[in-house]
Structure formats: structure tokens, C-alpha cells
Amino acid sequence: MSLADCLKAVCNGRSDCVAFPTTWFYQSDWVKPYNLDLPVVPAAVIRPDNAEDVAGAVKSAGNHDRAVQAKSGGHSYANFGTGGEDGAVMVDLVNLQDFKMNEDTWEASFGSGFRFGELDKHLHENGGRAMAHGTCPSVGIGGHATIGGLGPMSRMWGSALDHVEEVEVVTADGEIVRASYTENADLFFGIKGAGGSFGIVTEFKVHTHPEPGKVVEYTYSISFGSPEEMANVFEDWQALAGDLNLDRRFSTLFIVHPLGALVTGTFYGTADEYKETGIAGRLPAGGDLNFKLVGWMGSLAHQAELSGLQIAHLPTAFTSRSLAFRESDLLNNSAIGDIFKYIEDAEKGTLAWTIMWNSEGGAMGDFIEGNSYPHRDKVIMYQSYVVGFPWITSATRGFVDGLQERIQEGAPNANSTYAGYIDPTLTREEANEFYWGEHLTRLREIKAKWDPNNVFRNPQSIEPAG
To answer: Rounded CA gap, 338 and 141, in Å?
Structure first.
């Protein structure tokens, strides 16, 4: 039986369940690539209704030696949700959106097809609960909570994957199993940090928190001055964000864009509690301040608004680089000056670019065991994000690469990054070391046990040991 016939059998006659490259509007209506600079044509796209359908799709793909990758929100920088290269079977989890709340334990169970915006509504409506995740409401929880899941709540509560207590997952042989800290713990370790290499999660069980009552939000908007002036502002910001003793209720971003910079801050507490921390007196000065006190849902809306400045919501052609910094990797004043001089002078080939630094640390360092997320010692992360219209030019690539080189020169021992900030210019070997570091040997051993034939693969996925 052909791959197409196998997948049609899984769908059992359901319309809008499976499509192939010959299907009308296949790329726009089914594949929906995120980065138009990296075109990918999957062999098929299937939209399962349940875990059994996912299992059937995985078995079909494995029997025909096809790679399998799942897509939740579809925001992979390298289109890994579509397979990352031609010929994969793409499993679109959009229909997996069941939700349950256990009001005795306040653990929520939900399908991996949810995007943040809808998941937050369900958590809010079922007991006023919350969990940590990123800021863009259209990002899917399936990939986010299996690779890390960073956001403004992470310094206070840890990452999205730190909330995951148990998963239902389809493995490479098409079996449906449960994995947790006590059941299939090795698979759970791999799923929590490198999920795309180990299986397809169909359901998450997570612990939740009561929604914070009040949230302080501020934004400093700084018009672009001289490189020296911008460097001075960044020096003050880095001293604050890189402080290991910074109050965990506080997170902050420094975003450079064509018109200047934004310095944002989020504090989960009252205005009086924020004042008591002394953070206000340490903030960079010189910009126009927008200061407000909002509720939890208002804060989520504000963060979503800001994320529009960082990450495009619509498919575009873009390129990106990133690095993660320990306290010992923080940039000295000379390096900062060189970087902002470069940003000012470099030919960019586009007006659509942002460079973002975000605070890490805090509670991120509390969840070392039981997961493969390796960046527990990082205090700041940086990423560039540059859009080309209609495509990426050599000038644009040169700007991004030149910036990465200068930041790397200023932090020569910063040799890792977050796997959610995918850099498709890296080879598989470079990416594996860059993303997973000290966990890589163990991850390859686990891969050899659970996926020896490398069914779950993309251009930068983990390969089985041996």
C-alpha cells in the first residue's frame, strides 16, 4: 500500500484530514511555512483528530521510510514543523484541543494543538490559573513546551516545560505511551527539551499557578541617538538584567529597531512591591516612559502587543542568529561600543529588523533535574531577527552575520543558544552541541532506545547513538 493510501486509511474518509503536493493550494492552505526563505514541500500533511490518528500516521510514515515532524503553532524559524526539508510527513496537531482542569490538584490537561491565546483563556476560565510561556499568542504549546518555552514569567515560575508533569506521547513505533518523572522517565527527559527528536506529544498535564493579581508594566521608548548614547543605555540595562540577585518577579527586554530602542519591564506584583525592590532606580534613563498597572489578562495582551515588534506574525522571508550568556559572558563596555557602532553603520538591506536581549535566570535555575533543557546558568539571551522583502539579500545576511561575529568576539565563551531560536546555518553537529551541550550524549543514547531508525528527524535533530 502506498504512503498516500495508508494515510487516507488513517483518515477513514474524513474530509479536510490529509493532503498531498498535488492538492490545490497545498502550500498556502496545508503546509503554511513560517519562514519563506526556506521553502519546504512535505510528502503529505495530515490533521489527526486524536492520538490514535497520530499513531497511524507515524506507523505509515515509518513503513515508507519517511521522516515525521509535528506542527503545533508553526513558528519554527527553520520550518522544522514541516520537516525542515522536502519529503517528510507533517503531522498538524491543530485538532487536538481538549482541555480539563483538576480542581483538587489544579493540574491542567490539554491537547498539543493549543496556541497560547486560547490556552490562556481556558486556564483563566477554569479557576483563574496560569502557567509560564512566551508572549506571542499564535505560538503553539506543542513545540514550545517540548523545547523550553521562555517568556516574561520564566524568571518567576520557570519555563513552559518546567510546568509539564506528564505527557501522552506517540513513539517511533506508533505506540501511545505515558511519560513522566516516574514512568518512562528517560523518554520524558528527552521530550522535555528536545521533543521533536523523540515523539509527538498529544496531551500535556501541567501544574498551574494562581494568576498574579496585579502586574506592573513599563516601556521606555528611546529615539535613536549616537552609538555612544545607545551603548550607555545598554550598559545600564545589562547591569540590571545580568544581576544574579535580581528579584524573580521582574523580567525585562532590550529591543533595538530602526527608530531606536525599547526597554521593557514586567513586575508581577503591586506598584508598592515594585517600588520596594529598588529596580526603578536602576533602570536606564533618557527615554519616554509608559508606566501602567494592569491585571493578569491585561499583561498578557500587553506582552502580545510588544511581541509584534520582535517576531513577525505572518509568514515572511527572514533570518536570525542568537547566543545565550552566563554572568561571566556579559559584554564589557568596549564590546558594547563596537556593537552599537556596527549597528549604526552597517548596510542592512532592509528596514524590517530587530535585535533583542531578554533577561533569564531566577527560577530557570531551579529545574535542573529530569529534563534536557541545558541553559539553567544563563542570565541573558540575545537574538537578531531580520526580514527581507520579498527575500533575504546578501546585504541582509551580511548584517546578521557581522552582528553575530561582533557579539561572539565580545563574549568568546558564549558557545550555546536556545533551540527555540533555530539557526539553520548550523550543521547538525554544530546545532546539537549549540542547543543541548552537556545533555547531548545522554540524549543520543535515549534516541537509540526509543527511535533507533530515526523516524523523528529534521536537519538539526538528534541522531541515535551508534
So the answer is: 38
- Distances in Å between the Cα of 196 and the Cα atoms of 83, 142, 267, 437, 450 are 10, 10, 33, 17, 13
Contact of 168 with 51, CB cutoff 8 Å: yes
CA distance 238 to 357: 9
Q: Collapsing DSSP states into helix, strand and coil, what is residue 222?
A: strand
pLDDT of residue 229: 87
Predicted TM-score (pTM) of this structure: 0.96
Question: Which CATH code for domain 215-425?
Answer: 3.40.462.20
Read off the pLDDT of residues 307-346 as tens digits, 9 standing for 90 and up: 665 455 689 999 999 999 999 999 999 999 999 999 999 9
Q: Where are the domains of the chain?
A: 3-92, 99-211, 215-425
**CATH of region 3-92, choose from 3.30.300.20, 3.30.43.10, 3.40.50.150, 3.30.1950.10:** 3.30.43.10
Calpha distance 24→14 (Å, rounded)? 17
DSSP SS3 for 121: helix
Give the closest residue to 236 by CA, choosing from 282, 277, 286: 282
- Residue pair 431/147 in contact (Cβ under 8 Å)? The answer is no
The CATH number corresponding to 99-211 among 3.40.640.10, 2.40.300.10, 3.30.465.10, 3.40.50.10610 equals: 3.30.465.10
User: Residue 290: which pLDDT band, with cuts at 50, 70 and 90?
Assistant: confident
Helix residue ranges, H only, 167-282: 185-194, 227-241, 271-277
Identify the band that residue 223 occupies on the pLDDT scale cut at 50, 70 and 90. Answer: confident
Q: How far apart are CA 98 and CA 114, in angstroms?
A: 9
